Structure formats: C-alpha cells, structure tokens
Automatic annotation (TrEMBL):
Residues 18-65 form the F-box domain. Pfam families: F-box, FBA_3. Residues 1-16 have a biased composition (Basic and acidic residues). It comes from Ilex paraguariensis. This is F-box domain-containing protein. SUPFAM superfamilies: F-box domain, Galactose oxidase, central domain. Residues 1-20 are annotated as: Disordered. InterPro entries: F-box-assoc_dom_typ3, F-box-assoc_interact_dom, F-box-like_dom_sf, F-box_dom, Gal_Oxase/kelch_b-propeller. Coiled coil: none annotated.
Length: 384
C-alpha cells in the first residue's frame, strides 16, 4: 500500500507560522516560560532558533510576566567575599538553596548595593553590575572619582526602563570647603553591551549617611540625612529623583521625634515608603507608612515586639504574599539571626538552617554577608 499523501491545511500552516515553528502559540510559550527561573529560561535559548528569537534578548511580554511573578516569590541573596572571588547564593524563605555561582573579581569588594534583580559591587579599582539570575557581569568604565568613596546607590527608573548607579563623593573647593558631588552612570535594560561614561551632575545639598543602605522606590532614591547625627534633633529623609535628577526633603512622621539612631531604617512595603523605628531598650518595632506623599502624611501601620532586648537590627525587608504565604517582614539581628514577622497572624519565627536540597549539605552562613531581598530577573545589562 502506498503511503497516504498528507494534504496541506492552509489554516494549520498559518498557525504554525505564527508559532514560529515551535508547535504552540507564541503567547502560550511565553506564559509557560515566565513561570520558570531565569537561569532555566536562558538555557532554553539553545532549543531552537524560534526560541532564541523569543529569549535573546527576552521578549518584552515574557520579561514583564516573569518580573511580576518573581516579585511575589522573592529570594534571599547572600554574598561571600573571599577575594579574588565572590560567591553569590540565593535561597528561598524556607532556607533552600536555589542558585549559586562564583565570579573572579579584580580587587576586594568595599560596598554592595541591590535593586530589584541587579547587584552593584564597588571594589577598590572597579565597579561591577551583576544579574545573579543570568550570571552576567558588567564592568563599569572606570572614573578617577571612584577612588573617593563616600556613598553609592543603585536605582531603577520604570518610565525609561533604566538602571542608574549614583555615586556621591567628597571634593574640596578653592576655599578649602568640603562639598558632596554627585556623578551618575546609566544602564539601559536590553540590547547589546556598549561603553558608557559617568556624568557629573553637580553638588548635593545633603549629606548621605554611609552606614545606611539607600533604598530605591518608584524611581527615586531615599536615604537619611547626616546633619543631625550629633545634635540630638530629629533626622530628615532626603530623596533623589532619578528622572529629573533633583533632590527633595521628606519630613519624618510628626509623632516620631526620635534623634539619630542606629536602629532606624527605611523600608518599602507595597510600593510605599516606610520608616522602621526599633527601640532597643524594650525590643519594640514601630513601622510608619507614608500614606500621602504629596502632603507627607504618615500612619503607624505596624507595631510589634521582638524576642530579645538590646539587639540592633542589621537589615529589614518586606516579603509580599504569594504561593499560599502570608505577608512577612524579614528582620536580621546579629545574635538571633533571621526572624520573620507574619503580618496576618502577628507572630514571629526564626528562620531555620540554609541547605542545598539536592545534596542535603548545610551551608555555613558564617562566611556570608547578611542577606538582601532579591528578585529572580531576566534583565540584561547595557551601558549608556
């Protein structure tokens, strides 16, 4: 019997064409891929040319879906700085290792900053920007001003889809007066790598406390002012708009009259600026939320007690709900380690040990720096 000749189906051929020969609608493929870790998505570029066209660079729809889903399942990123290498390890909130890799660096890391899915490492003679999910490193072009370390911030501007490294440094004018100067390096998300340059935009009217991590929220960088460090007066919060590259002052809550304190932090909860006041004398935490930024109206949104007294907060992060998990606030303390405050049940639990679920080997967290909240990301790095 002769083989039956396959008849052409014009509708099916058109459908296959719209799927780029993969056999499934493009939107369905993107929806499936957006649910996977970024490192797996990058590996799928080798599957076929049609998949390569979707994934290199990542399709904008895929990137947006993946970003939205990863925002509900944040990870904890630990950094082990053992020059000439740096080891990055990400864990879920259950303590399971999700990703780990090691990178050679040219000099010891002095500072590090996080923003969404990217990290910025400030070394003695170089600045690196890294996407730990895709394991892509970009060495930022050198600037002689980088030798004068004062403070750094890494921010994201949603309106232009750009990341900006902001560096404040000290200069002395002709009269011998110290002034804080600001320079910026811009990274455009997507495309091919290219050389960029630093832009000096002028003097900063405010000092930036070096011991605090500035936070980026809705296209602005926020930090505590340094003017009242020794005066006992209430501190100020300052903002730097990444779009206009201008400064503004944000008043602290009126009911909060505390002086400069090592246990005051800034925090982003649900896209809103918050001030965290930790009273060491009785291990109590108050979190003030900016309800109306135009009128600078604050409300004390959360208030709870910790396990022990006289323990300062090393870092604090908000973990959104997702995958059956309640909203939680992650608090790092020097002795007790990592604590999770459940906003719904108002209960506190200690995080367990961190381990590799594949090998069962426990990770020695004593070698690592305190964690930062990290979001799995497909963002690529391009200098402008």
């Amino acid at each position: 019997m002769e083989p039956m000749e396959r008849k052409s189906n014009p509708h099916q051929d058109r459908h296959s064409g719209t799927t780029n020969g993969v056999g499934l609608p493009r939107d369905l493929i993107i929806d499936i891929l957006s649910r996977l870790p970024a490192k797996f998505i990058c590996q799928f570029r080798c599957v076929s040319k049609p998949w390569l066209s979707i994934l290199s660079p990542p399709d904008s729809l895929l990137q947006n879906l993946h970003r939205n889903r990863s925002n509900s399942t944040p990870l904890l990123m630990f950094s082990e700085n053992s020059y000439p290498h740096i080891c990055l390890s990400s864990f879920d909130t259950q303590g399971q290792l999700r990703n780990q890799f090691t990178k050679h660096i040219s000099s010891p890391v002095l500072k590090w900053r996080f923003c969404q899915g990217l990290m910025c490492f400030i070394c003695e003679d170089h600045v690196y920007v890294c996407n730990p999910s895709t394991q892509v490193f970009l060495q930022v072009p050198y600037s002689i001003k980088l030798r004068v370390l004062y403070n750094f911030a890494l921010g994201y501007l949603p309106s232009t889809n750009e990341y900006k490294i902001v560096h404040w440094f000290v200069e002395t004018d002709s009269n011998g007066v110290y002034q804080i100067v600001c320079q910026i390096f811009t990274l455009k998300e997507g495309g091919s790598n290219a050389q960029g340059s630093w832009r000096v935009i002028g003097n900063s009217p405010h000092f930036i406390i070096d011991s605090r991590f500035p936070i980026c929220l809705n296209g602005s960088i926020y930090w505590f002012g340094d003017e009242h460090r020794n005066s006992g007066d209430p501190m100020n919060i300052y903002a730097f708009d990444l779009a206009t590259e201008e400064y503004e002052t944000v008043l602290c809550p009126r009911a909060y009259s505390g002086p400069f304190d090592t246990c005051v932090r800034l925090l982003s909860i649900k896209g809103t600026l918050c001030l965290v006041d930790f009273k060491q004398c009785r291990s109590h935490v108050d979190i003030w939320m900016m309800k109306d930024q135009s009128n600078q109206i604050w409300v004390k949104e959360y208030s709870f007690d910790m396990f022990t007294k006289y323990r300062s907060i090393r870092n604090i992060h908000y973990i959104p709900s997702g995958d059956g998990r309640d909203e939680e606030i992650l608090i790092g303390q020097r002795k007790e380690g990592l604590l999770l405050y459940n906003i719904k049940t108002r209960s506190i639990r200690k995080m367990g040990k961190f381990s590799n679920e594949n090998t069962g080997i426990e990770i020695d967290m004593g070698r690592y720096l305190w964690p930062h909240l990290y979001f799995d990301s497909l963002d690529s790095l391009v200098a402008r």
